[in-house]
Amino acid sequence: MPNTKSYIEITPLLNDMQKSLFFDSEIQKSLDNFIELAIKIFDATACSILASSLQTPIELCQHGPKITLTKDDFKNSSNTTVNINSNILRVVTPINLPSHVQFGWIVFERHSDIAFTEKEKSIFSTLKNGLINQLAQRRRLLEATDNVELQLMISELNKDLVCIKDEHFKIVYANDAFKNMYPENMQNNIIDCTTVENYEDEKAKNFLAQDKIALHCGFSQIVENLCRPNGSSFTADTVKQRFENRLGNLYILTVSKDITEKEQLINKIEAAQSELDEFTSITSHDLRSPLNAIKRLLEWISDDCKDLLPKEHLENFQLVINRTNRMQVLLEDLLSYSRINSCDGTLASISLDAIYLDIKELLDLPKTLTVNINANNQLITIPVIPFKIVISNLISNAVKHNDKKNPIIDIALLPDENYYVIEIKDNGPGIEPKYFSLIFKLFQTLQSRDDVEGSGIGLCIAKKHIMNYGGKIEVTSDGKLGSTFTVYWPKK
């Protein structure tokens, strides 16, 4: 908040008793004019204006004999006080600015044993309000000047290329980063030119295309390849914004950010991701065929030799077959995980009941399973395929780890303003809280794979799909009486 020091600055020189006053000349002129009018209109013998907000009031300007004041004269900081003593009328009035800061006081004296008349009070109030308005306006002007200087300093320190063009696309301002693109002997010639004076017409037209869009539409943004005067090129994210000055003249502010390194990094990441996806897809495909052949061969041998081999050997055959089944599941899950980012995200409105009926056909669910859905057939608008994968993996996980003869899963849609909140609760053995963060990691299972078949990827896939759409998943359990997984899927 502004204070009196916003208008004046007191600087110690030799000691605390000697001070030098640095004062804005326009404010000083306003104070002098006020004192001159007060002396003439009210026939005052002396008049002073003092500044507050300092250890002791400081006299800013004064006319006539020095007025001796005490602390009692400044007690009332909100109202004017008028005293008559020995035929001397003294008026002390505070100067309170619109910013709720007390700038100081006006004090004047005259020879009189008669108090202020109503007319004098009205005139004095008008003069004081005029002075306050002048002080406030001058402060706003000073703040605007400070803001302009601050903005210029920020612009000069900015490493982005900043320039301002007029409606004829001539540069009227360029920051140091913009100028430094050019050789020193050219930097002084940038202002008042378009920098395309020597271009062929078609090339100049293309170069100024975004300027024209910004001028006519108000805004333009483009990622473009730009060429420096020395012939080197770079990738820039360029934003152009139209604005007008107080006279109505149109200008274009241009800010170009060099994102060459960022673009190169993105390209490298995309290439690496593409190679990884291709590798995963090819590997999974090439491994599935021989794995299926091995599995079929083992099953044939087991069927052909079931009456010839001892029971222990048949159990070993079955163990190998189970391992191939596990490998098949792992390959399928790995392939699903690698395709998460390319999954079809088409939106559709569908109910949880309909989603479960579709999932039910794909999952090998036990006949003793009971699934209760409490959603009142309410439609939710979601990317169907990723959402079905999430719900499918959560249901599959709840069934796979359930140790009850009659497993129960309760699915509910809870009310929320920003999310579709889906709660999936089971009556299984539960999960100890210390394992909550572990279960969402790749290849992590809390039970031996010989006891429960699974790749340990299902919950990780579900979480990644949810996070890709800005949601989250939470789990609660006491480790004894079932588990509850809560999915928060953003509505927008």
Automatic annotation (TrEMBL):
- Asked if the keyword Transferase belongs to this entry, the reply reads yes
> What domain of life is recorded for the organism?
Bacteria
Asked if Metal-binding is a keyword of the record, the answer is no
- Check the record and name the SUPFAM superfamilies matching this protein: ATPase domain of HSP90 chaperone/DNA topoisomerase II/histidine kinase (SSF55874), Homodimeric domain of signal transducing histidine kinase (SSF47384), PYP-like sensor domain (PAS domain) (SSF55785)
Q: What class of enzyme is it?
A: transferase
Matching PROSITE patterns, A to Z?
HIS_KIN
Arranged from A to Z, the UniProt key words for this protein are: Coiled coil, Kinase, Membrane, Phosphoprotein, Transferase
Cited InterPro entries: BphY/WalK/GraS-like (IPR050351), HATPase_C_sf (IPR036890), HATPase_dom (IPR003594), His_kinase_dom (IPR005467), HisK_dim/P_dom (IPR003661), HisK_dim/P_sf (IPR036097), PAS (IPR000014), PAS-like_dom_sf (IPR035965)
The protein, known as: histidine kinase
